[in-house]
Amino acid sequence: MNNKEIARKFSLLAKLMELHGENAFKTRSYSSAYMTIRKHPHELSMMSPEEIENIPGIGKAISSKSQELLSTGEMQMLNTYMDMTPPGIVEMLQIKGFGPKKIGTIWKELEIETIGELIYAINENRLVELKGFGAKTQASLKEQLEYHMESSDKILYAHAVPVAQSLIDSLQKDLSDYKFSLTGSIYRKAQIIDVIDIITDAPISTIEAYVTENEGLNQTEETLFYHHIRVQIHYSSTEMFHYDHSRLSCGTEFWQALNIENKAYASEEEVFLQNELPYIIPEYRENHNIDYFPKSYNGDSIVTSEDIRGCIHNHSTYSDGVNTLKEMTQATADRGYEYLVITDHSKSAFYANGLQEDRLMQQLDEIREIDQSMHGFRLFSGIESDILSDGSLDYPDAVLGELEVIVASVHSNLKMDEAKATKRIITAVENPYTSILGHPTGRLLLSRKGYPIDHHKVIDACAANNVAIEINANPLRLDIDWTHVQYAVDRGVLISINPDAHSTKGIDDMYYGICVARKAGLSKYNCLNAFDIEEFEEWIAEQHEKRG
User: Fold this and answer.
1) CB within 8 A of 381, min separation 6: which ones?
2) Is residue 241 a contact partner of residue 179, using CB atoms and an 8 Å limit?
3) Binning pLDDT at 50, 70 and 90, where does residue 59 land?
4) Class of domain 307-545
5) CA–CA distance, 242 with 198 (Å, rounded to integer)
6) pTM given for the model
7) CATH pick for 153-233 out of 3.30.420, 3.30.230, 3.40.710, 3.30.460
């Protein structure tokens, strides 16, 4: 078990204890353990019981339960509460914005035990009279429940791809006489998938026998699962393998628009080249791109991991990050990048230990000191400044003027209507101190919808004010959505692929941002952090000029 898995167990335990009205002090201790363990820089599995117990905020009881999880994979105390709680109630605890107290109320007062029953009760308008509810709360809860149900059989690409690759590796090892490849949405690196598509030239009987013998594969009626993810096997002949693979890897309308001749090909590349087309990278093969292909497609310049020179939008222990400035700087340099921009949370983000002015100036001094000690690497100062409800940033101009890069982001008051939300963001974009618009919709994939904005108006404002737009590479965000990237590029807006790293490990999330940038056909020439140090410094100078 890794730290995140252990932390989730403590989070669930805390929610269940609160649901059952247990001692608030104990409940908070387990809730705090969730954050402590989740953010701890070292895996508990590699530590001794004494070392775990000595972690600030852990103590003997939580250390003991952590050891129980590490040795058995279970926690008896958690099992006890799970046995006391209907499965549907446990599922409700996973829904964001629907806390244990409200769940306890509908369970005890209305005897509701499943999400289906709850939606029915909402449709019957039965929650409005309950304590802590009301018409607005009921409407908001209905929307969140519907989103939860729509997302329940889906999984993030970042979580699915290691499982899928493990299955492919096993198949290729055990059935080496045949070809196997991922195809479909997971081959296109879609942000969210609902199935692992695999194509093979193996006979059906061979695969059926393999499924029966393999413990990781589970056949339920006509549905195949591998580690709880649905798998679809597509069969082809050896001769037609590359044609069928390419066809299945494209969105249906995109494939039809290509007008590919149905015949045998020697490779995936030949499928395109023999039909007088450029080789189209898998990520790009989405239906949305029909309107842009081939006019804006240039496979030779589409951004790759090797093109990325700098790491922008990162956090340290000054706010809610796990690692220090020095650790983040060294980790970035070790990965071969040329520069790092630290943008810790601003003072309005109290929940993230946001920086008041005095601590920001203290950090700025340390950034300058570290930067001067590095050779062939630059450390730039910045902040992720909260966009307040009226669109203003949460520091005065004099403070913002001390910093090199300002990422402006919304983190609160997420329930504005489209007109207000759009106006709010445009106001922030028009602030001369704003350098980059961070995660424009605030979405959390499979967990929270983004707040509604008019993307074209926001992008037009960025173009008019020389503000770059972020693709937040955290696999839970991937925001701005790739479908808006080409519109931004057409208007001359630079796109910055930012990991929003809260630890040294988080720097590697850059990969997922690159995947969605490639899906949009983003050129390295339109990618801000594909700039080398000199080009990036010139861009910073342009940003400072507009401040006046």
Assistant:
1) 341, 342, 363, 364, 367, 368, 402, 403, 404, 405
2) yes
3) confident
4) alpha beta
5) 13
6) 0.83
7) 3.30.460
